[in-house]
What we know:
It contains two helices and 21 strands. It is mainly β. It has one domain (7-318). Strands 6, 9, 10, 12, 13, 14, 15, 16 and 20 form a nine-stranded antiparallel β-sheet that branches. Strands 3, 7, 8, 11, 17, 18, 19 and 21 form an eight-stranded antiparallel β-sheet that branches. Strand 1 (7-10) and strand 2 form a beta hairpin. It is globular.
Amino acid sequence: xxxxxxxxxxxxxxxxxxxxxxxxxxxxxxxxxxxxxxxxxxxxxxxxxxxxxxxxxxxxxxxxxxxxxxxxxxxxxxxxxxxxxxxxxxxxxxxxxxxxxxxxxxxxxxxxxxxxxxxxxxxxxxxxxxxxxxxxxxxxxxxxxxxxxxxxxxxxxxxxxxxxxxxxxxxxxxxxxxxxxxxxxxxxxxxxxxxxxxxxxxxxxxxxxxxxxxxxxxxxxxxxxxxxxxxxxxxxxxxxxxxxxxxxxxxxxxxxxxxxxxxxxxxxxxxxxxxxxxxxxxxxxxxxxxxxxxxxxxxxxxxxxxxxxxxxxxxxxxxxxxxxx
Length: 325
């Protein structure tokens, strides 16, 4: 495939870099929000009785190999705790901040204090997961020949209200599958076997600082996961906080496409950031999408307050999902 590196410019003077793009025509890059929405998954948080049951203590398998059952889940069956890293400490329906989607009265607040092992601060950056129940509500994974794609709105508070820490603070990601060849050796003989490999591409929101007129000031930007070697690469700077719309899409060629824009309007081709093949993997199936809430896990400083609204999931041919409610 041919490597392309360019830049796109959208409103508010934000440069979106089409790094790690591929020699595809624009029609092959599916804009998130394309196709038919599968209302069996996602949420609008308009139900005043919306509730999340945490079932603490939460899991921290990625650190100490402990899954603490039962897992947290929402009462509407649309969200659940991640077994590897646990759920945010606060999962709460709140009034939609100003500038949100028209007629939206409810959104969801996600924030955390203990992102590592419960009641055992690590003083290292950790994260919690909040996972949309896609695979189980649809009766299986979604193949990329359906061009699965997803969008969300995220409210970014003013920078002075963020946790005072540089690095990742939040992410919107997907859990996807591919098939890889694994070499096994027994005695003097080697054989290759196929196995499923799960990986998690997405968009991270980070805080940084820089010197301006002799003063250290914070700024925010997006990083994209991931390039062919598994490294994150730079996305656009966030020159304005408030509501943003983020999107991911997966196409039959196995590639991942990333989109973002300020505001709550639907994404368009002008909001394209990049196309990539994370880790060199061609995506075959989508399992779910989820959010990360990140903090320094020092037992004292809460994460930034993140508010999400209207996460939606789309496919180009919804016929195989029609019977699922």
